[in-house]
Design a protein that fits this description.
It is built from 15 helices and 13 strands. Helix 12 links the parallel strand 12 and strand 13. The protein folds into two domains: 191 residues, Rossmann fold (3-Layer(aba) Sandwich), CATH 3.40.50; 178 residues, 3-Layer(aba) Sandwich (Rossmann fold), CATH 3.40.50.2000. Helix 8 crosses helix 13. By secondary structure, the protein is α/β, with parallel strands linked by helices. It is 49% helix and 15% strand.
Length: 381
C-alpha cells in the first residue's frame, strides 16, 4: 500500500507512476490512498480516493487535515485489505504510514526523492514550519525498515541522522533515462518554426516546475552578458503554487526589463513528446537549481543526446560528474564564461558532447525492475 496527497506533473509524478507500474508488472496487488484520482487502469490496482471534510479545499488547513486523516484511512484500508507492505514515496508519507505500519506490524519501504522542507525555505515560511517538517521527516525515517535514496548526498545524510539509532538498510537507486523515441529531422525544422527561432540561431533550454529554487532569473540575467545575438532561451514548465506563479510573473517582467522579449520564450507545460522534440532542436540544456533530488529532466536531455550543464549540487553532480559540465548556480560570471566558451569553441563543444554521452551510458537501465526487486524482497524477508 502507498499514498499520495496530490499529483503534480513533473519528475516526481512520473517516478511515482513508474513505481506503481513496476509493482503491477510483477502482479502485486496495489492499494493507493489519494485525494486526486490516479489514472492507472489495471485489475490489481485499487485507488482509494478520499475527500476533505467540511468542504476544505486547500492551503495549510487542508495539508494538516491530510496529515492527521491519512494515517487513519491507511490503517483502516491496511487492516481491511490485509496489506503485506507499506511503501512511502517520501518521508512525509512515511510519517503518515507509520501508525498503520506499527499497529499492523508490517514492514515499510521509503523512497526519498529530495529535501522535503526546501520548498518551505524558498517560500520564506515561518521558521517553525521547517522545524516541524524536520521532526516529521525524522519520525518517518525512524519507522522505515528500508530506505531507498536517489543521490549520494541524501544517502549519507540519512546515514548520519538515523544510522546509529536504528538498524535499517539505506540503499542508493539513481533515476534512469526513460525510453525516448527517435524523431525525424524535419521535427527540428517544425519545432524551431513553431517558436519563430531562426535555423542559424543557438538555443538554450531549461525545464521543470518553475519555482524560486530553479534559480531561472540568473540564467535570464546571463543571456545578454553572453554576447551572442542569435542566442535564444526556452523555459519549459509552469508553476504549481501561488508563490510559483508570482515568481513566474517576476521572470517575465525581468525578461521585458532586459529587452529580451523575443529571445526568451516561456512555453508553459508540455507533454513529454513535445518536450523531447524541443530538446532535439536545442543546442544546450542548462539547469541552475539550488536544490534537487535527481532531476529527470537532465536525464531526458541526455537521452536525446543534448549536451547538458548543471549546478554543482547533490543530485545534479551525481548525473553530470565532470567539472566541465558543472558550475556554481549563484556565480553569474562563471555561468556566462562557460556558456560563451562552449559556443565559441567547436573543440570544447565536442568535448562537452562526448562527456555527456559517457554519462548517458551510466543511466540506461531498467529502473522499474530494480525498484520492484528491492520492494518485493521486503515482502519475502
Amino acid at each position: 500500500m502507498t499514498a499520495m496527497y496530490t499529483l503534480r506533473e513533473g519528475g516526481a509524478y512520473d517516478r511515482f507512476i513508474m513505481m506503481e507500474e513496476a509493482f503491477l508488472e510483477r502482479n502485486c496487488e496495489v492499494h493507493c490512498l489519494s485525494l486526486t484520482p490516479i489514472q492507472i487502469k489495471h485489475p490489481y490496482y485499487h485507488n482509494h480516493v478520499t475527500s476533505f471534510p467540511f468542504g476544505i479545499k486547500g492551503g495549510w488547513v487542508a495539508r494538516l487535515t491530510v496529515l492527521f486523516l491519512f494515517p487513519l484511512y491507511s490503517l483502516l484500508i491496511g487492516w481491511r485489505e490485509k496489506i503485506d507492505l507499506f511503501v512511502a514515496f517520501g518521508s512525509l508519507y512515511a510519517f503518515m504510514l507509520a501508525i498503520p505500519k506499527w499497529m499492523l506490524k508490517r514492514p515499510m519501504v521509503t523512497l526519498i526523492r529530495g529535501d522535503f522542507a526546501f520548498g518551505l525555505k524558498m517560500q520564506k515560511s515561518s521558521k517553525y514550519f521547517p522545524l516541524f517538517n524536520k521532526f516529521i521527516e525524522y519520525l518517518g525515517l525512524i519507522f522505515s525498515d528500508h530506505i531507498i535514496t536517489n543521490n549520494t548526498a541524501i544517502q549519507n545524510q540519512i546515514i548520519r541522522i538515523i544510522g546509529r539509532r536504528k538498524q535499517v538498510e539505506i540503499e542508493l537507486l539513481m533515476n534512469n533515462i526513460p525510453s525516448i523515441p527517435h524523431f525525424k529531422p524535419e521535427d527540428v525544422l517544425q519545432t524551431r518554426a513553431q517558436f519563430e527561432i531562426p535555423l542559424d540561431s543557438k538555443v538554450l533550454v531549461t525545464a521543470g516546475v518553475i519555482n524560486k529554487g530553479k534559480n531561472i532569473e540568473i540564467l535570464i540575467k546571463c543571456l545578454p552578458k553572453i554576447e551572442i545575438n542569435n542566442l535564444f532561451l526556452l523555459i519549459i514548465g509552469d508553476g504549481s503554487t501561488k508563490a510559483d506563479f508570482r515568481y513566474q510573473d517576476y521572470l517575465k517582467k525581468l525578461t521585458d526589463s532586459l529587452d529580451l522579449g523575443k529571445r526568451v520564450i516561456f512555453t508553459g507545460w508540455l507533454k513529454k513528446e513535445e518536450l523531447w522534440k524541443i530538446f532535439q532542436s536545442a543546442d544546450l540544456f542548462v539547469l541552475l537549481s539550488i536544490s534537487e533530488g535527481m532531476p529527470n529532466v537532465i536525464l531526458e536531455a541526455l537521452g536525446v543526446d543534448l549536451p547538458c550543464l548543471g549546478s554543482n549540487i547533490p543530485g545534479v553532480n551525481d548525473i553530470l560528474q565532470y567539472e566541465e559540465l558543472l558550475f556554481d548556480p549563484l556565480d553569474e560570471e562563471a555561468i556566462v564564461q562557460k556558456i560563451r566558451q562552449i559556443f565559441s569553441s567547436s573543440v570544447l563543444f565536442e568535448k562537452i558532447k562526448i562527456l555527456c554521452q559517457e554519462r548517458k551510458k551510466v543511466f540506461i537501465f531498467d529502473w522499474k525492475e530494480k525498484v520492484s526487486q528491492i520492494v518485493v524482497r521486503q515482502i519475502r524477508s
